[in-house]
Amino acid sequence: MATPVGLVLVAHVATLAEGVRTLAAQMAPEVDIRAVGGTDDGGVGTSFDAILAAVTSVLAEAGPDEGAGVVVLYDLGSAQLTAELVLETLDPDQADRVLLVDAPLVEGAVAAATTAAGGAGPAEVAAEARAAYAPTAGASMAGMPESPESPESRGPAEEPVEGEERARTTLRNPAGLHARPAAALAHLVREYDARVTVGRPGSPGADAAGVLTVVAQGLRVGAEIEVAATGPDARAAVDAVLALADAGFGELDEEMSAAGPPVPPEPSARAEPAASAAPEPGTLRGVGASAGLVVAPARHLRRTEPRLPPTGGTHDPMAERRRLAAAVEQVDAELGSRAAGGGSGADIAGAHQAMLADPALHAGAEAKLDRATPAEVAWWRSVLEARDLLAGGADQVAERAVDVEDLGRAVLGALGVDARPSVRPEDVSGAVVVAEEVFPSDVAALGEAGVAGLAVARGGRTSHAAILARGLDLPMVVRLGPAVLDVRDGTPVVLDARTGQVRVDPPESELSAARQAARDLAADRERARAEAASTVVRADGTPVTVSANVGGTAEARAAVAAGADAVGLLRTELLYVDRPRLPGEDEQAEELGEVLAELGDRRAVVRTLDVGGDKLLPALDLDPWRHGPLGLRGLRYAFAHPDLLRTQLRAVLRAAYGRGEVWLMAPMVTTAAEARRFRLLVEEAARELAAEGTAFARPAKVGVMVEVPAAALAADEICAEVDFVSVGSNDLTQYVMAADRTNDAVGDLYQPGHEAVWRLLATLVDAARAAGRHVAVCGELAGEPDAAVRLIRMGVDELSMTPSAVPDVKAALRGRLG
Ligand code: PEP
Ligand code: MG
C-alpha cells in the first residue's frame, strides 16, 4: 500500500539518481520514490519538465488527504534552483504539499524513505532527511560509529548519562543487522519519545533511527549489542528494542526465536578461536564449491578491521576527494591489467571494475567527506553501507557483498591503510585455511602460498572466490556455518569437497584412510583428465553428450579445457549479476558472442534470462515474495516484460551469427502454451532481424527447461511444441519436495536423489523419447557420477554439469555403461 508521502530524488546524472533510488527503495519498498537525473537529452544537468512530471505524478498518487505530500531531495545547488522553479509553477495547494529539503542526497533519501514508510507526514520526513548524519553528542562525525579498535569509539559512551537506560542482548539474525532488520528498528524507535542508539558494548552506538548508520556497524549474528536511550520514553523504548531483537527484528520464525540465541561467532577471524571452544571431533556439513579431498591441519585466516586515520581535525574535502579519486584510479588500473590477462581471474577483475565504478559507492563516499572526515573514513563507510545492503539480498546478490568489501580494502590499501589479511606463506602452506568468508583477492594469494584447501563458514558456490578456487583446482567447502570457526589452529581435518563435509580431528585410522583415498582420487582425476577430451560411446556405438554449464567466458574456457563436448546450459543472468542495470542489445550481443567464441565449433544451449526465485538481480529491483520461487520468475517474468525478452532474443540471435551451433531454451516453463508462445517470440525476433537486414543466425533448436512438476507430468504436450527439453533438476527437486533450495531450515528435505524425483524423471524421459525429442539434464544431479550413469541408462541423451565435473562423469560413464 502506498504511503502518504512520496519522494523525488533529483541529481545531475541519471545513474546517480537511480542508484540512490535503488538504495532507498530496498529499505522502504512501499514508498513511491522517483529518480530524476540528467537533462532531457541524457546529458549532465537537470530537467525542469522531468522534475515537474515526477512531482505532479507523486502528488497524484499520494492523493488529496491532509498529511499527504512529496519530499524532494537534490544533489547540487543548481538542481535546487530547477526544483524551486518547478514549485513556483504549481498551484498553491499543490505547492503547499511539496517540501524541498537541503540534505545529503544518499543519507537523506534513505532516512526520508524509512520515515515515510512508517507513515510520517511531509514535515517529519523532511526533518529526518535533514538530520541524516548530523553530528550528535557522543557519536563520531557523520553519526557513523568507528571500527571497534578506534580509540574515539571508547570512553564517552561508557560514562553514565543521567536518565539514560541501557541494556544488552545478543543479535540473533542469521545475516546480522543488515538493511531489513535495521529498517524495522528505525520504524520502531520513531514511535517513542526517546533518542535510542544501538551498537557494540562500549561504543557510542549508532542512532537507531538511521538505517545506514546502524547497518554500517556490520553487527553480525551472535554479536553482543548494547541498546541505550534517553528521553521521556527511554525505558519503554529500550524494552521494545530488546523485544524486537529477541524476535530477530521480524526475520526469524517463532521456532528459531524459542530456541535461544545462536552460538556466538561474532566472526571475522579478528577473534582468535577460543581455546576451549573446539567442537567434539565430528563432522561439519557444508557445500562443495571446488572439487577435491585433502587431509591437512587447519589454519585460520586472520583479518583485522582496517586501522583508519582518526576523524576530526581539519581536512580539505577537495584534497581528500582528489586522494580518493587517485586511489580508485590506481585500483581500477590494477584490475584493468588483470582483466586483460587470461583465466577465470580476468572475468572477475572485469566485474570488479564495473563494481568499482558504481556511482552509488562514490556518491556515498563523497557525501561523507567534510573537514572532519578523511578520504579513508568516508570511503570505508560508503563501502560498508554498500556491502551490508548487498549482504541483505538473496544468494548471488549477497555473495557480491564480499566483492565490495574486497574492493573497498584494495582502495584503502591504495590510500596507505593496511587492510589486507596477513597471509604468511609459512603459516598456511599445506594447510586447510579456515575463514568466515574469503575474498576473491585472498584466493589468489592463498593459492600462491600453497594452501591445501579452504573451509569457509559462509560463502556460496557461485561466489567469485569459489569460481577462482575452481580455476586454481583448490578444494573448497563453503557454508560450513560458524562451528568451523571454532576449530583450533593445527587440528587435523579431512576436507571432502565431493560431499561438502569436513571431518574435524578424526582418529588416526580414519586420517590414513582419507590420505590414501586422496591419493587414489588424485590419480583417478589425472587419468580422467587425460581421457576427458574424447567422446563417451554406449555399447551400441551411440555417443553420449557430456556438456558443461557455464555463465561467462572464464567458465566457457574451463569447459573446453575440461573436455566438455558442448555447453548444455549457458546461464545468461550470470553475465548481468553485478550490473546496476541490464545491458542493452548491442552489449548483450557482444558479451554473449565472446562466450560463444571461446567454445569454437561446440554447440551451446543459451538459456534466456532466469530471474526471480534464488536469482534476484540488482538491476531489476525484484521483490523476493512477488518474484520468489512460486512467483513471477523465469519465463513468467520474461513474458511480463516483453521488451526485455525481445532485446535478449535479438541479442542471442545476433551473437550466434558466425559461431558454432546455438540452441535456445526458456527457463521455468509450466505449460505447453508457454512453450508455444516462447517459440513464436523466437520466430518473431528472427523475422525482425531478417527484415532489418541485421546479421543473425536462427537457433538450430528451440526448447524449454523442465523444472516444474506440471511440465514433467504433461511432457507429451510440451514436447509437441519444442525440439528438445532439458531438466533443471535443482529447481525440479525444490518443487517436487516443496523445499526451497536456498532455505537451510528445510535443507534436509531438499534431496535431488529422492525416489520421487527419480520417478518423475522417468515419466518425463519416457514421454520425450516417445515424442522423439532430445532430452538433457542440466541440474547438479547430472554432475554426480552415480546419478549420471543412472540417467543415461534411463534414456537421457545429454548431461550438462559444472565444468570441473566433466572428466569424472565421463570416466564413470566409460567404466559403467555396459
Ligand atoms: C536447475 O534448476 O536445475 C538449473 C539448471 O537451473 P538453475 O540452477 O540455474 O536454476
Ligand atoms: Mg533452474
UniProtKB/TrEMBL annotation:
Composition-biased stretches (Low complexity): 268-281
Q: Which GO terms describe its biological process?
A: phosphoenolpyruvate-dependent sugar phosphotransferase system
Give residue ranges for domain PTS EIIA type-4: 4-142
Q: Does the keyword Ribonucleoprotein apply?
A: no
Going by the UniProt record, its keywords in alphabetical order are:
Cytoplasm, Kinase, Magnesium, Metal-binding, Phosphotransferase system, Sugar transport, Transferase, Transport
Q: Which Pfam families match?
A: EIIA-man, PEP-utilisers_N, PEP-utilizers, PEP-utilizers_C, PTS-HPr
Required co-factor(s) are: Mg(2+)
Disordered: region residues? 139-167, 254-317
GO: which molecular function terms? Answer: metal ion binding; phosphoenolpyruvate-glycerone phosphotransferase activity; phosphoenolpyruvate-protein phosphotransferase activity
Establish whether keyword Metal-binding is in the entry: yes
**What is the catalytic activity of this protein?**
dihydroxyacetone + phosphoenolpyruvate = dihydroxyacetone phosphate + pyruvate; L-histidyl-[protein] + phosphoenolpyruvate = N(pros)-phospho-L-histidyl-[protein] + pyruvate
* HPr domain residues: 164-252
One of the record's GO cellular component terms:
cytoplasm
Biased composition, class Basic and acidic residues, residue ranges: 151-167
Q: Where in the cell is it found?
A: Cytoplasm
| The EC number(s) this enzyme carries | 2.7.1.121, 2.7.3.9
Role this protein plays: Component of the dihydroxyacetone kinase complex, which is responsible for the phosphoenolpyruvate (PEP)-dependent phosphorylation of dihydroxyacetone. DhaM serves as the phosphoryl donor. Is phosphorylated by phosphoenolpyruvate in an EI- and HPr-dependent reaction, and a phosphorelay system on histidine residues finally leads to phosphoryl transfer to DhaL and dihydroxyacetone. General (non sugar-specific) component of the phosphoenolpyruvate-dependent sugar phosphotransferase system (sugar PTS). This major carbohydrate active-transport system catalyzes the phosphorylation of incoming sugar substrates concomitantly with their translocation across the cell membrane. The phosphoryl group from phosphoenolpyruvate (PEP) is transferred to the phosphoryl carrier protein HPr by enzyme I. Phospho-HPr then transfers it to the PTS EIIA domain.
Regarding protein family, the annotation reads: Belongs to the PEP-utilizing enzyme family.
Q: Which PANTHER family match?
A: PHOSPHOENOLPYRUVATE-PROTEIN PHOSPHOTRANSFERASE
Q: How does it assemble?
A: Homodimer. The dihydroxyacetone kinase complex is composed of a homodimer of DhaM, a homodimer of DhaK and the subunit DhaL.
Q: Which NCBIfam families match?
A: dha_pts, PTS_HPr_family, PTS_I_fam
The name this protein goes by in its record: Phosphocarrier protein HPr
Q: Which organism is it from?
A: Actinopolymorpha rutila
Write the lineage as a comma-separated list. Answer: Bacteria, Bacillati, Actinomycetota, Actinomycetes, Propionibacteriales
